[in-house]
Write a structure and sequence with these properties.
With 267 residues, this protein is an all-alpha fold. It has 13 helices and no strands.
Length: 267
C-alpha cells in the first residue's frame, strides 16, 4: 500500500527541485522571455518569483493533504517548464522533450483523475487502470531516454565522463563511453517495452533503482548544484516504487474510458 505521505513527499520533492532550478539557473519561461522579448529584466524576474511562490504554495497544500490542489499547481508549473524548453530548443533532444519528460509533467494529471477520491492516511488506493497508465508513463520515459542514449546524447556522455573522474583507476575513452551508452540505451528500450507489453514487479523494482541511480548521477557532474536536477527527477524512481507498493481497489466504472488500452492483468 502506498501511504498518503508517499504522494506528499513526491509532490514536495519535485516542487523543491523546480524551485531550486529557478533559483540556480532561472526558469525556461524567463529565459524565453529574456531572449524573445524586449521586456525589462525586472518584469522577467517577476515570472520567476511567481513560479517560486506557486511551487511554495504547492508544498504547503501537499503538506496539509490537499493533494488535488497541489497536483494542479505542480502540473501547471511542470507543463510550462516542458513547453518553454521545447519552444527555446537549441539543445540535443529538445525536439522530443515532451516525450522524454512525459513522466514529470503527466503523472500529476494521471493522479488527479485516477487516484481514489478519498485518500486517507491509511493509504491511497490506485485502480488497476491507474497503475497501467502510470506504468505506461514510466515506460515511455525509459524508452525516450534509451533512444537518446543510443543517439549518443552529449549530456549523457558528459555524465559518464564526470562520474568516471571519481574512479581514477579506470581510464575512460570516448569509444568506451559510446559503447556504454549504446548498451544502456538498449537496456532502457527493452525494459520500457517489456513494461508496456508484459509488466512485472521485478522490472518495476529495476526501474526504481535505475531511476534513482541516474538521477543522483547529476551530483557527480554538478556537485551540490545538481540538487535541482536530482529532485526534479524524483518521479523517475518514486513512481515505479509506488506501483510496487500500491494496493488496487475493485474495478470502478469511472475508469471505463481506458478499457481496451491496457490489459486487465494486474502488475
Amino acid at each position: 500500500m502506498v501511504g498518503l505521505r508517499f504522494w506528499q513527499a513526491l509532490i514536495i520533492l519535485q516542487s523543491i527541485g523546480l524551485m531550486a532550478q529557478i533559483l540556480i539557473h532561472s526558469s525556461p519561461v524567463s529565459k524565453h522571455l529574456y531572449f524573445a522579448t524586449n521586456l525589462p529584466e525586472t518584469t522577467i524576474l517577476i515570472a520567476d518569483v511567481g513560479l517560486v511562490l506557486i511551487l511554495g504554495a504547492c508544498c504547503v497544500l501537499a503538506r496539509f493533504a490537499r493533494l488535488r490542489h497541489s497536483l494542479l499547481l505542480l502540473l501547471a508549473v511542470a507543463w510550462s517548464d516542458t513547453l518553454f524548453r521545447f519552444i527555446r530548443g537549441g539543445s540535443f533532444g529538445s525536439d522530443w522533450v515532451f516525450f522524454s519528460s512525459i513522466l514529470r509533467y503527466a503523472w500529476p494529471l494521471a493522479l488527479i483523475f485516477l487516484v481514489s477520491k478519498k485518500p486517507s492516511t491509511d493509504g491511497v488506493f490506485l485502480d488497476v487502470y491507474a497503475k497501467r497508465i502510470l506504468a505506461a508513463l514510466v515506460a515511455l520515459t525509459f524508452i525516450s531516454h534509451g533512444i537518446k542514449a543510443i543517439a549518443l546524447a552529449p549530456n549523457f556522455k558528459d555524465l559518464i565522463f564526470a562520474t568516471a573522474l571519481y574512479i581514477p583507476q579506470i581510464q575512460v575513452t570516448e569509444s568506451m563511453v559510446n559503447l556504454m551508452l549504446i548498451l544502456i540505451g538498449t537496456m532502457d528500450l527493452v525494459v520500457g517495452s517489456l513494461i508496456l507489453l508484459r509488466p512485472s514487479r521485478g522490472l518495476l523494482a529495476w526501474m526504481g533503482f535505475w531511476g534513482l541511480l541516474t538521477a543522483c548521477s547529476r551530483f557527480s557532474m554538478y556537485g551540490f548544484n545538481g540538487i535541482a536536477d536530482v529532485l526534479i527527477r524524483s518521479p523517475h524512481w518514486m513512481i515505479p516504487f509506488a506501483l510496487l507498493l500500491a494496493k488496487p481497489k475493485p474495478r470502478d466504472a469511472t475508469f471505463a474510458f481506458v478499457i481496451g488500452l491496457f490489459r486487465s492483468r494486474k502488475v
